[in-house]
Task: inverse folding
């Protein structure tokens, strides 16, 4: 009888430890990644084809964006002249998930290299800073991206 009681106490103690660990894991995850964003690279979303799941994402300085290669054949390429001053070129590999940490505030225009003329384009606004908006407006966008951009710029 004594033995049974002891092991019951042990089980309760173990459950308590597990529950506490779970709670802290969940809490830490939500608190440290709450402002980061995920964008899926898709062949199809509703009536659109070759599209990022979100065309405009607003984040804080120091946040990350994670692009998920849900569909294959896509990538992320910062458009020349479409990023804040001092930000390096960036072009991800096809078919690969990719993450970027945005430490410089401003607007970032990017597109998918093979589908830029099909309108596969997106914008990230970091730290609510639109000081490079004129540069973003003067980019020579191609094909369907050119048609989409005015409305997107208006909603930045
Ligand atoms: Cu693409």
Result:
């Amino acid at each position: 009888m004594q033995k049974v009681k002891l092991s019951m106490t042990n089980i309760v103690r173990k459950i308590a430890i597990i529950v506490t660990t779970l709670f802290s894991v969940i809490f830490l995850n939500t608190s440290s990644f709450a402002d980061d964003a995920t964008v899926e690279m898709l062949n199809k979303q509703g009536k659109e084809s070759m599209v990022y799941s979100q065309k405009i994402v607003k984040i804080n300085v120091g946040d990350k964006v994670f692009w998920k290669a849900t569909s294959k054949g896509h990538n992320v390429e910062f458009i020349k002249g479409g990023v804040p001053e001092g930000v390096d070129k960036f072009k991800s590999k096809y078919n690969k998930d990719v993450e970027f940490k945005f430490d410089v505030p401003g607007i970032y225009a990017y597109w998918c290299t093979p589908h830029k003329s099909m309108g596969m384009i997106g914008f990230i606004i970091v730290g609510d800073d639109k000081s490079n908006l004129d540069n973003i407006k003067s980019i020579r966008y191609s094909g369907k991206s050119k048609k989409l951009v005015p409305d997107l710029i208006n909603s930045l």
